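Section 3.1 - Work completed
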Amino acid sequence: MPRRTVQEVTVQDVQKRRNPNKHYVYIIKVSWSDSNTETIYRRYSKFFDLQMELLDKFPAEGGQKDPKRRIIPFLPGES
């Protein structure tokens, strides 16, 4: 069986939630190569954690040596 791959990811909506504390949840649609789709829900903090991992694993793409060559988009930290 061939391994399925992500074909497209889109943010469908953002919800403000207050339980257990105030936070935002991003509703994301993931389309797969086998024509299936899934809806996933993630907090901003999970996107930020992924960003940090990408910058650690791909320092050149993160612009550590030359900021003009950065291809990983900037993502502000939570305030």
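Second construct:
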Amino acid sequence: MALTAAKQYTVAALMATLAVAVIVTVVFAVVCPARVTFSVARTSFHHEDSTTTTGSLRLNLTLAIDNPSRRAAVAYESMFVDLSNSTAAVQGDNWIRATVTTPMPLRQARASPATVDAAVDLVAGPWAVAFTGDMTSSFSVIVTAQARFKVGVAWTRLYDIKVSCRPVAFFPAAKAKLGAAAASLPVKCI
């Protein structure tokens, strides 16, 4: 009889372990992060002194963020936007940090879009001319964000998100050089 009781305890322990494993797997599947997508929706530029094209230059861009998930909301804790004057896959040292003008943290509801605005101010001079390719270059936009996802009442850990969008054109000459199809917005980020 003692042998049967030991077998019963062993089977009960194995069943309890299996039940816990199933519960943990289900919780992780339910609380996994949503697949958000980024794109550059709008670009523009203007000179601070509208009477000349040699003054300081401001590059503006709007990021569109799509959260298609019907179960997970997103909270972006921080976001950085960098501009590189190279559209190569491997970025060099020629990049500048944009000022994100949308207040953070940014809350994004389930199955909804969100936008983030950013701007880069370039001081007039040879560096700005070189960086913009005399206003004929295309750019890469690199977005780095930290976000948490909310499923029901549960929040996930903090996730790092990094995407690159290219080619992004701010200037008419750059858009003409790329061609109509390549220069069209939105530019999807990968």
